[in-house]
Design goal:
Length: 191
């Protein structure tokens, strides 16, 4: 499922357990949402909005400008967080060498996490739930150590096999074998 920025970041790093859609029940049915309850999906960050070179403050841009929409959404994120920054986000910022959530930090293109759809409702009381929207409830979110780059699509879409393998490899890494010393394992050799 492709999410506009900053919402993919919010699911992956800020504990956002609800995806808000303006779908009516009929559209949700057409999108196949009821059949996806209980299924693991990929959380994909869509194409990145570009910061305008004009130097204008984002609020002076046209309301249809993607950068303005991104910055407006960020204001909503900051209000929801109310100064609280989950450990995952703090660790992400530390890896990037930054200390604050700037608009650029929220842009994570590609598959950034996996989650299980646990259900849908229109009356979630979660702080991330938008009033009047269809709330797709997410659980068991796993943030990928590295985003897997791929194009997305609107609604729900099938992840290509090669991309799915790359995501699965991060979710379930292949265990490494202990080195062998003759016929002894490393543990036996140390004893």
């Amino acid at each position: 499922m492709t999410l506009r920025h900053p919402w993919a970041f919010a699911v992956a790093h800020l504990g956002k357990p609800v995806e808000n859609r303006d779908w009516d029940d009929r559209l949700a049915e057409l999108m196949g949402l009821p059949q996806l309850v209980g299924e693991t999906i990929a959380i994909h960050g869509g194409s990145a909005p570009q910061r305008p070179r004009s130097g204008k403050h984002w609020s002076a841009l046209a309301t249809s400008n993607p950068w303005r929409q991104h910055c407006e959404d960020l204001q909503g994120v900051h209000q929801i967080l109310a100064g609280e920054l989950p450990d995952s986000a703090a660790q992400y910022l530390a890896r990037r060498g930054v200390s604050t959530l700037t608009p650029e930090v929220f842009i994570l293109p590609g598959i950034v996490a996996t989650a299980v759809i646990s259900g849908t409702t229109r009356d979630s009381r979660d702080r991330w739930a938008a009033h009047g929207a269809l709330h797709i409830l997410l659980r068991d979110v796993f943030t990928l150590p590295e985003p897997v780059q791929c194009p997305g699509a609107q609604g729900f879409w099938t992840v290509p096999d090669a991309i799915e393998r790359a995501v699965t490899q991060q979710v379930n890494p292949t265990p490494t074998r202990a080195p062998q010393y003759g016929h002894l394992t490393a543990q036996e050799w140390l004893q």
